[in-house]
Amino acid sequence: MMRERREAAAAAAEEEEAEEAAEDEEDDDDEGEEEEGARGALGKSAEELRTEDVYDISYALGRELQALGGDPARRARLQFQLVRVLELLEALVSGGSRAAEQLRLERDSLRRELGALRGQPARHQLSLGPDKMVIDLTDPNRPRFTLRELEDVLQERNQLKAQLHVVQEELQCYKRVHKESKKEVLENIPSISVRK
Amino acid sequence: MHLVPPVSRDRVISHFPKWYTPEACLQFKDHFQAQVRSACHQRNTGTVGLKISKVVVVGDLFVGKTSLINRFCKDIFDRDYKATIGVDFEIERFEIAGVPYNLQIWDTAGQEKFKCIASAYYRGAEVIVTVFDLADIQTLDHTKQWLEDALRENEPGSSFIFLVGTKKDLVSGAACERTERDAIRFASEMQAEYWSVSAKTGENVKEFFSRVAALAFERSMLKELEKSNGRMAQIGAGNLIKLEGNSLDAPESNSQASLSCC
After folding, report:
1. What Gene Ontology biological process does one annotation of this record name (chain B) (predicted)?
2. Contacts of A182 (CB under 8 A, 6+ apart)
3. Nearest-by-Cβ selection for B86 from A154, A166, A176
């Protein structure tokens, strides 16, 4: 691809030279566009660079090489070296963008998967069965005791309450008896003193 | 048997307490049946064992079952709501027609999660009190289910049924009347006696429980008389027994009918 492109660029430069006068105006537009593409491409950072940018740079360098003049043998060597460097650059850029594209696809599919998992939290609980409950073991107020234990405690409480009821009644009786015997003692005191 | 102090004066019942509304009441008589009266008179000396009846109070949560019981048994009203856990009970002592008599009042939890615990205490209830909130008509709708659950644990026809609307202080005249009309219709369908009460003001609370106690007492006396009657027939002749038997052989003609009226 790069070689084709480079050849095309060289051919274009030669053609230009030959038909310089005839197609001056027409080429000016085309040339301006390509020059601009190369300038833009050269201004980009390594991460931003695309294979199209490498072709633009290649085209611009080809033109510069044609315009250089001097020893044709040295020009040809330089051209060969440039083509080699551009081929390596092309390989790096297209490899990098392929890897980036793959990572992007992978990221998007992971995002979709995450969204789907977040959107269906019920599915996770359903897998427990319809009559199951999830207990947060870190909750200090979580359910802990069994029905049997509560029943036992209630029964014990009720027995104690019944006993308390009996004891309270008996206490009331003893209090009354105590009060009455006290009264009797007090009433007996004057009769004793009278006898004396 | 343990020592028992005298019953407080406001727990002494000598006249049969009146109903709340004649449209939904269990019986119309205003006096104890003759054989019960005479039996009470003979046992006044205190040779008989203490009689006790079981009352079970059911209904939705937050209708005021505990408040109703606390107003009657402790004469208190707590504004704060505290859900009953499982079941609780109070024992209230009466003296009816000269005979000591206890009501064991079982207060059940209204929360659904405690139903399995509370329902174990429904058995052997002489009285079932279904309670609803006069200010929350839905709780009235649920009383039928509560009654059904309570009846399932008891012999058919063995329990007196009461329907009680609470929080009377919260509803105004017209709304109260409308709800009462609905409730009375419910009560007659449930074969229950209807009462409107307020635990907060105490309105009708003592009257209601006195009525419960008197009805339960009379029925338990009649049952006992029936039993001893049967025993005497087996034993056979004897002047003393015959004399007592005579008074038992002549019950008031309307006694059975009046028990099952409404």
Report:
1. protein transport
2. none
3. A154
Nearest to B140 by CA among B90, B105, B89, B192: B192
CATH number for position B85: 3.40.50.300
Domain membership flag for residue B262? no
In angstroms and rounded to an integer, the radius of gyration of the C-alpha atoms of chain A is: 51
What is the value of ipTM here, to two decimals? 0.77
A110-129: per-residue pLDDT in tens?
999 998 888 776 655 556 77
Identify all chain A residues contacting B117, using CB atoms and an 8 Å cutoff: 147, 150-151, 154
- How far, in Å, CA of A77 to CA of A74, rounded? 5
- Largest separation between any pair of C-alpha atoms in chain B: 63
CA distance B173 to chain A (A): 40
Residues of B in contact with A147 (CB under 8 A): 116-117
Distance separating alpha carbons of residues A54 and A94, to the nearest angstrom: 10
- Give a yes or no: residue B184 inside a domain: yes
- CA separation for the pair A9, B122 (Å, rounded): 102
CB contact under 8 A, A176 and B5: yes
The reported pTM is 0.65
Query: Is residue B75 one of the residues assigned to a domain?
Result: yes
Contacts of A150 in chain B (CB under 8 A): 85-86, 117
Select the residue from A145, A168, A169 to test the B interface by mutation, using most B Cβ atoms within 10 A.
A169
Who contacts B63 (Cβ-Cβ below 8 Å, separation ≥6)? Answer: B110, B131, B132, B133, B136, B139, B166, B167
Q: Is residue B40 part of a domain?
A: no
Structural domain containing residue B214: 9-30+47-229
Establish, for the pair of chains A and B, how many residue pairs have beta carbons separated by less than 8 Å: 30
pLDDT in tens, B40-55: 887 654 445 678 999 9
